[in-house]
Design a protein that fits this description.
The protein is 33% helix and 16% strand. A 10-stranded mixed beta sheet has the order 1-2-3-4-6-5-7-8-9-10, with helices on both faces. The protein is globular and about 65 Å long. It starts with 12 loop residues before the first strand and ends with a helix. The protein has 406 residues and is α/β, with parallel strands linked by helices. It has one domain: Alpha/Beta hydrolase fold, catalytic domain (Rossmann fold, 3-Layer(aba) Sandwich), CATH 3.40.50. Pfam families: Abhydrolase_6. It comes from Asparagus officinalis (Garden asparagus).
């Protein structure tokens, strides 16, 4: 980015003994205008220093941040940390596909004597905004260290209807290899859910009221605030923070990396797609079916006999403004350059149709060529695979992080 925006957090508090110190101020990297109505008083978590836009990537990030802020003007609070406890009975809102656990357990792992005894698990909450959903549950897994040192960290993001505890096999595998492994519950999932329909109910509520963005964008806000926290930890190298996720988590990783350049290495898995392309080419059905109740609600409100392109477009505009237009993959995938970026998809994935990625992938290739680092971008579409994370994807992601983050 041509210019840097410093966001100061004058009141960052830690309520638990941890092996790191929170510093004030924390630093964010955004260059955006503050929307009307946002407080800039010291007791607000965001204090803006106005700077000129530097380039097209900065401009797009600015517009995206404006969009995120537009529905939380009254919710901004100082970032703070609260103690947490391990979750004994994680809440899953959907069925677990056979074999999916084994796929994560296939992740490369160091053979360490008494491994479990040497693991360190931290449970905490970040307060990212006012309200129940502003309490972000965080799970951090690492190895006991004989001497303090800054290590690379990776943020892992679960798929729809799961939770951070689901990711334990990946967290432990990466911790064994010298990473600090971090997972969160996305909005309306895990500890942020009260029953098995919380996420779907939140999507319907967003359509009705237009006051939240539960599909992707609200969790991206949390990931930006998570970046503020992680870059302050004395055991994490702030220049070596990666991000990855599966399905919904892959979308979270994609958009968080597009918005926040502190995520230095990026691996979205079965998440990147062309929302606008799907609308234009009548390929939206599989994605719609994954969260169908909100589209059914919109269909009824719009007086339609069936869900059609108009219904889908209006839902996206309502619950995730810009998702199928200015913030879609043809624009947000290329601005991740020049950071190392690996996209892993299934070649037969109906939710992420391959043809819909022609433009974003070609633009990304050009962006990395222009940055003189074409080797830092790679797209793999695994033949014969639908919407499914595979063991080979887990291995590819692992190799990518080892190559660029260690």
């Amino acid at each position: 980015m041509a210019s840097i925006l410093a966001s100061h957090f004058p009141s960052v508090t830690c309520f638990r003994p941890v092996p790191h110190v929170l510093r004030t101020p924390a630093v964010s990297i955004y260059n955006y205008k503050i929307p009307t109505g946002i407080s800039t008083e010291p007791n607000c978590s965001i204090k803006i220093e106005m700077e000129k836009e530097g380039d097209e990537a900065s401009k797009l990030r600015s517009e995206f941040m404006d969009s995120l802020l537009s529905r939380r003007r009254h919710l901004l609070v100082p970032l703070r940390v609260e103690t947490g406890e391990p979750v004994k009975d994680p809440l899953y809102q959907g069925k677990i596909l056979p074999g999916s656990r084994e796929v994560m357990e296939s992740c490369p792992k160091e053979d360490i004597t008494d491994f479990k005894d040497k693991l360190v698990q931290e449970n905490l909450y970040l307060i990212t905004e006012a309200g129940n959903q502003g309490r972000l549950p965080v799970l951090i897994v690492s190895m006991k260290e004989s001497a303090p040192r800054r290590q690379p960290a990776i943020v892992f993001l679960h798929s729809s209807y799961k939770c951070k505890e689901w990711l334990h096999p990946l967290l432990e595998a990466y911790a064994s290899r010298g990473y600090i492994a971090v997972a969160i519950d996305s909005r309306y999932h895990g500890e942020r859910a009260s029953n098995k329909t919380t996420y779907l109910d939140a999507l319907v509520s967003s359509w009705r009221n237009g006051d939240t963005m539960p599909f992707i964008f609200d969790t991206v806000w949390d990931l930006i605030k998570l970046g503020d926290y992680l870059t302050q930890r004395e055991d994490i190298d702030p220049a070596r923070i990666g991000i990855t996720g599966e399905s919904l988590g892959g979308m979270h990783a994609w958009f968080a990396a597009a918005a926040d350049t502190r995520y230095a290495v990026v691996v979205p898995i079965i998440g990147v797609q062309g929302f606008g392309w799907a609308l234009d080419n009548d390929k939206w059905q599989a994605r719609v079916d994954s969260i169908k109740p909100v589209f059914d609600e919109a269909r009824i409100d719009l007086g339609k006999a069936a869900i059609d392109k108009e219904v889908v477009e209006k839902v996206w505009d309502r619950i995730a403004p810009g998702l199928a237009s200015q913030f879609d993959s043809p624009y947000t995938v290329p601005i991740i350059a020049p950071r190392p970026h690996l996209i892993l998809n299934g070649a037969d994935d109906p939710r992420c149709p391959l043809a819909g990625l022609d433009t974003p992938i070609s633009r990304a290739v050009e962006a990395y060529k222009e940055a003189n680092c074409p080797e830092k971008f790679k797209f793999i579409a695994e033949p014969g695979i639908g919407h499914l994370m595979t063991a080979s994807m887990v291995k590819e992601a692992s190799d990518w992080f080892d190559k660029f983050l260690k």
